[in-house]
Design goal:
heterotrimer; A alpha/beta (345); B mainly alpha (257); C mainly alpha (295); A: 345 residues; alpha/beta; D-Maltodextrin-Binding Protein, domain 2; seven-stranded mixed β-sheet; three-stranded parallel β-sheet; 10 strands; 40% helix; disordered N terminus; B: 257 residues; mainly alpha; 79% helix
Amino acid sequence: MTRFASLALAMLVSLFAGAAPSAAAELNLFAWSEYIPQSVLDGFTKETGIEVNYETYASNEEMLAKLLSGAAAYDLVQPSEYTVEAMIKEKMLLKLDHAKIPNLKNVGKEYWGQPHDPKLEYSVPYMQGTVGIVVNTEKVKEPITGYADVFQEKYKGRIVILDDALEIVTWALASQGLGPDQVTKANLEKVKPVLTKWLPLVKVYDSDSPKTALLNGDVDLGIVWSGEAAILLQEQPKRFKYVLPKEGAHMFIDNVAIPKGAENVDAAYKFIDYMLRPAVSREISKDFPYTNPNVEARKLLTPEERANQASYPTGNPKLETFRDIGPVAADVDKLITDLKAKSGS
Amino acid sequence: MTWVRRLFTAWTSLVMVFFYLPIAILILFSFNESRLNIVWTGFTLDWYGKLLEDRVLVRALQNSMIVATATTIASVLLGTAGAWLLHRYRYRGSSMLETLIFLPMIVPEVILGVSLLILFVTIGMQLGYTTIVISHVTFCAPFVMAAVQARLAGLDPSLEEAALDLGATPPQAFTKVMVPYLMPAIVSGALMSFTLSLDELIVTYFTASARTRTLPLEIFGRVKKGLDPSLNAISTVFVLFTVFAVFATEALRRRNP
Amino acid sequence: MPQAATVASATTGQGKPPGRTGWLLLAPLVAWALAFVVAPAVIMLVYSFASRGTLGGVVYDFTLDNYRSVGDPVYLQIVFRSIGYAALTTAICLLSGYPVAYLIGRADERWRNLLLMAVMVPFWTSFLIRTYAWVTILKSEGLLNSLLIQLRFIAEPLEMLYTPGAVVLGLVYTFLPFMILPIYTSVEKLEGALIEAALDLGAGPLRAFSRVIVPLTSPGIAAGVLLVFVPALGIFAVNDILGGGRVDMIGNIIENQFKTARNWPFGAALGTSLLLSFAAIYFYVNRRQGAAAVR
């Protein structure tokens, strides 16, 4: 008994060596999953000695829920443009001192003057992207140009889409000629029959890593984040194609912001400045090939990366950012939950 | 009865295959060179090496160990005290107390997680080690209590009396007679508590914070992302640890009938 | 000596009312139960009558809207679906687990320990890992499909992952040990003489089973059913992984309210309703067991 006990104790002690919660500086990062490379975080820790605690979410709403509950304090969050708008309205963000972010100059001019935060007073652009259609060209031979083409009976059970109620609703709105700034109760009723037809055709809902189902061959079509699509195009360029729906697509700008109540504000500023370094930003693009708003970093990309249709789409697609929809969010969620339940099994 | 027995034996063998085949596949492919779990391309220990370098994973494991240890200590104290006090005293409401302590064991974990989250938010307690440990103890302590209660049921009351007659004080009677007697139940309860805590996902999902991500939370995130070859290696390590724990419990049981 | 005598009776008496020290010792226990079992439930109840703020906070007014929503046919449908899956899982576990438990319980010492440990290992292995194992086996380009295609049994990969069948398989895989172990405990306590008597009296194995053995092991069966049905009803992780986010159960809906939907009051209402239902089930089963024991 005692021999076993001492052996077990020795094992436990060895595992604890170095596990004591240190008094060293740390950064509590609450960000999207599949968005910040571990190498970037490790590099930051190596240089500054600040330990990064990275917690993830798969939707802006999830992040808002956690912040609103006050359950945990975060130093840095990663809201999309419409969420920044909402958070500014509710006074949830710290006003940024640009003097502490010298690398802000690397951000492209077109990212200033956006409706959600025109002077970048509360947020700094991280990555930009679109939500579009991925087609497995080996299985789907006919042209896919928009949402209506995807949601056809013949593709039943072969589709993956984001598990994001707001996104799904705006696609339905777009197919009816309505924009993402027209999310109202009345319009939700209008698109209900459209969604009732669409959702039973879906095989998988996935916002974390929708490329998985496509790579596995479990589905042939997907409406996914452009970064996920770009990875598919990189890995199997002959098999996949990225199409921006002609009815209109979401162009999102993901940002970093410091929530009020952050405990490690200095660490947060250090991280923001660090990620805006061209080399670091380029490293982020390597793992997550979204559209990089950092002009200097773009210069460091390879020609293949610049040519990736998902990362840097050419042509003149119809793109729109989202706006804050306020209390209608509850109705959006209920609508999708209802329809998912009815169409599920 | 023999044909029934033969039928049952055949069925049991099938069930055992059912249990172990997926686990065996995971273990097998953790040594596979290829990233995909389909074709065997060559033997490698690379994935295990990568595990050790994975700082996030190592930290998650450390968090899990810290939480599991604290949980086990607290659960043993609470569970043993609960079992002994309930055995010793009877009063109005003692069965209610017993039911309350057992309640977390028989309620779906999602409700436990959600209600504890609401509690912590209401009293303004920040999510972290403390909240996770409290959550784990609420459903681990009943297991310890049940084990100790079972052991107490077979207690010969004259044991304690004899100790007191021989001049021991009540505290001495407790520590020198009761505790050693209860030790096998306490140890098995402790082992159960440790394993449950190490394994816990659902309740932790609601009551953890960025700094205190436990191993199951980390694994859950990776499983949802799919295609992560390190998962095979992690699984193998887990299974080996479990086998060790099971053998340890069995060995202890044999030493203390 | 008289002092020792009173002390002796004080410590060995079972079920006596506690003195001052007794209450002192009991205080932490009571405090714990109140703080972490009663309080969360009560606060959740209070939340269930509140309403959702604009951005998703909690506004403390009094409304029955949340409970009205709980009765909404859509959610009721999900509840019934969850009950269906949980019941199916429990039934499959019971039917497949009983023979195993019986065999282990009646086996001789050596085999029994070996078999028990063989069941304990999956019981204690993280359910996440065991579920992940099935993902790798069932996916379109996974092991099973590749095998079947290689053996020319099928030409195109079968859709096994992200189906209700996969979810049931995953649930059964997760919970089967929880059914086997309690039934084993009951079987082990059976007296061989009883079984032999049943057979001697001319009952065929089938009748011996249904009339004698199964009723005698009913405590184990009840425990197993409870240990499988209750958690199965509240799961959200297994069906999330194996069902592709399509097989939403009541656990997913509740989880969603606290994450994406940001409707804590509604989540609290769902949680409270579920909790009360379980309390009812538990009391019912407990009373039946009590009655059976008296019989």
